[in-house]
Amino acid sequence: MASTPNQNFNKPSPFQRLLSYTHRYRQKIYLATIFSILNTVLDLAPPWLVGVAVDILVKKEDSLFGNFGIKDVVLQFALLSLLTIIIWVFESLTQYLYDNFWRQLSQNIQHNLRLDAYNHLQELELAYFEDNSTGGLLSILNDDINQLEDFLNRGANEIIQVTTSMVILIGGAILILPPIITLAAMLPMPFILWGSLAYQKRLEPRYADVREKVSILNSRLANNISGITTIKSFTAEKYESGRLAAESEAYRKSNNKAIKLSSAFIPLIRMLVLVGFTALLFLGGMAAYSGKISIGNYSVLLVLVQRLLWPFVSLGETFDEYQRAMASCNRVMDLLDTKINIITGDVALAGEKIRGKIEFENVSFAYQNLEFTPSLLPNNERVTSESGVSFNIIQNLSLHIPAGKTIAIVGSTGSGKSTLVKLLLRFYEIGSGKITIDGVDIQRLNLGDLRRSIGLVSQDVFLFHGTVAENIAYGTFDAMDEAIINAAKIAEAHDFIMRLPQKYETIVGERGQKLSGGQRQRIAIARAVMKNPPILILDEATSAVDNETEAAIQRSLERITVNRTTIAIAHRLSTIRNADCIYVMEYGELVESGTHEELLGKNGIYTNLWQVQSGVR
């Protein structure tokens, strides 16, 4: 939901949000900052050493060392050389330390930030993933976090060092130069700082737009790669190439708008730097000529002013990096700030003690922001909320599932069958009513225990890129080979696995694309067998397989459903005719229930479905 103006006004800046997140690294940030400051101080020492050397040549016994009683010029240069070596050694050491600290910090922060963002993402309800594209989320977890890493690697240190240089130069100029010369030399600094801040404000919305455009582009790429089979089968390569070109062009234009503004920064800063340097060159030279300041001090200030003012030019690039990083920071922090709506309960659920009695009591549920034709949902209330329009998919539904029994749920597409499964697993939160397992409200149960007690085999089987064995053991990660093979045999998958090139070590490909639909389904059943849950859900488990495969799957299901509470959702009525009870759903309500024979005797919706599938009608 879009933020209101008042919410945006109260929202912390991206930098504040980043500081708040990096609180745990405070000690290391302090150390890195100290090393950056020390390195800057030591880095500004060579110009001072040059000034001392000039004074030794000009003043001889009256130089800085001469004032400490060292009159011999050779000895003064020897001491100056020794001091130079010490300063350079420590400068190199502090450079190593700050570089090492900042880089390690950037790696640690991006590593933990990515994990925190991903772990938070896993806790969000399914509705969040339906509202946000995979490519957009990947863009946050990869591109945006990497953008922050790039800034922490270099930009943070540069800002600290320029600030330190400015303080040292202003302090030194005040001590050495007449006030009018100091004022003239420092005159550009307020304009440089003001210009940097002004550019920052103007760049902020442009880089926010860049991050949004790259997110859309990543979404298009992820979507097209996932759907490459469909693209090829519909010969839509040229069409998709055009759509990608349009998204890429939008990203290019957005970047160009930001580049045009950021590119003007450095030339403008150069002109301001020129003013300050020229003022010091002329006025300072006149002061040295008239004897108001020493030639050595004049030399030091010339070098120092150049060392400070010219880095302001590169500071423009740092501000550019900063704005890119802050635009990314906002997107990452927005993800971390997304409210987790499904909260785990505090009641533990021991798997071996679960009987599996399930009750739905007057349950109602509505998907948000879905547009339905009201005439198609005659019994459902229309619900209007701040987040949009929704319709009750489940309407005051009550359902009793005895422990250890097999019940089936049938009905036309969109009647709410699969939604019941999602509600039982708490992928979504019910609107009203109550769902219990063994008499305990599932909202009070520990979420991990609840989901561990339920095995789901759906029609849309997802296999991970890895071996057959890894996919069977998924969720039971310490399973032995013998247990994996036994599970495959129960699922009637062992025979076809042994015919694969590397048998159980065969790589199945992304989403299991190297296997057939039936093979994927049987591996999914083997995975459920490995989990050994007290409650088993079969959501259209045989809807997309041939008759032979269906028969094999049915044999395996008959074995694994014994003494286990089983919920079978099916379009093929032949697969559930032996269920202990069959429920018929229409428009989110239960309209019929009974055994296969009892329902046929009612001559209602089930009878009609059976006659259509059996070829009677």
Automatic annotation (TrEMBL):
The keyword Ribosomal protein does not apply. Signal peptide: none annotated. SMART domains: AAA (SM00382). SUPFAM superfamilies: ABC transporter transmembrane region (SSF90123), P-loop containing nucleoside triphosphate hydrolases (SSF52540). The chain crosses the membrane at residues 29-54, 74-98, 167-193, 264-283, 295-313. This is ABC transporter ATP-binding protein/permease. Pfam families: ABC_membrane (PF00664), ABC_tran (PF00005). It is found in: Cell membrane. Keywords: ATP-binding, Membrane, Nucleotide-binding, Transmembrane, Transmembrane helix, Transport. InterPro entries: AAA+_ATPase, ABC1_TM_dom, ABC1_TM_sf, ABC_transporter-like_ATP-bd, ABC_transporter-like_CS, P-loop_NTPase, Type_1_exporter. It is a multi-pass membrane protein. Residues 31-324 form the ABC transmembrane type-1 domain. It comes from the Bacteria.
